[in-house]
Amino acid sequence: MRRHIVTFAFAFALFVAVWPHFAARPGSAAARDVWLKAQSTRFTLIGDASEKEIRNVGMRLEQFREAFTQISSQIFSPSVVASSVPITVVVFKNDSTYRPFKPLHQGKPADVSGHFQSSGDVAYIALAAGRGGGNPYAIIFHEYVHALTSGDALHATLSVAHPTSLPTWISEGLAEYFSSFEVTGAGKNGRLGAAIASHARLLRERRLIPLETLLAVDQTSPFYVETDKKSLFYAESWALTHYLLRPGGGGLSSASSSTRWRRANLPTSVLSRRSKPATRPSSRS
Fold first, then answer.
1. pLDDT (tens digit per residue) in 139-154
2. What is the gyration radius of the CA atoms in the chain, in angstroms?
3. Could you read off the pLDDT of 84-116 as tens digits, one per residue?
4. 105 by DSSP, 3-state: which?
5. Which residues contact 134 (CB under 8 A, 6 or more apart)?
6. Do residues 183 and 194 touch, judged by C-beta distance below 8 A?
7. For burial by CB atoms within 10 Å, which of 60, 187, 243, 272 has the most?
8. Which pTM does this prediction carry?
9. What is the rounded end-to-end Cα distance, in angstroms, of the chain?
10. What burial class does residue 27 get, using C-beta atoms within 10 Å of its C-beta: 0-12 exposed, 13-18 middle, 19+ buried?
11. Residues 203, 261: contact at Cβ < 8 Å?
């Protein structure tokens, strides 16, 4: 699979100070911890993790936002990437201190190493620094993309008839594509577009959703709310988005990037005459 490569041109600065306003029960373990507060260009970070770990989290998030900005401006109009709501990042030192704050699944803390939560006018990212082998960033990047692509500018660029929401396949496909972000070159470069192994495997093993059905899925559809069907919907939305985003064009490579996306949002009767659906992706790089 071909990938997007970006080079980071910004100078990362993070100012760290002891944060005295963390409220914890007297005598509790949290009350004995030192909580730090840090400020980067776009994020406020607080946590009981070490200063180094908080800096690393801040750097990774700034790198992701820079990569998203660079690639989005190549695909869509520059006005798409607007300033987002204020984001506070809570960096817990390990999974034990993070556990009481995890989202619940069937009444119990979910088995996640990070999550993103937004209330419209403010957003939060939470993750555990001492996370063992888990990677909290994929789900965080996925949800952060949803926050970044919620503005009217992106809807106008894609010629969406009803600007209250993106077509579900585009929304989830973009989020999955950018969730593959990884840092390379000793922190100087970023890379997007690696195959997501679980998606590639599912697409090889399962019968694909017909293109007309895929493009018509909304948040009330069985393909979005039923776990087994939703996994396939995410995988196929990712594959089609990857096909349209890949450098050098995709199935609609004769058109400009923005025109390809407008065509991708046409009614299925029009789209089926102009292009062919994406082929099954290979897990090979």
1. 888 888 887 776 554 5
2. 20
3. 678 899 999 998 999 999 988 888 888 888 888
4. strand
5. 113, 128
6. no
7. 243
8. 0.71
9. 5
10. exposed
11. no
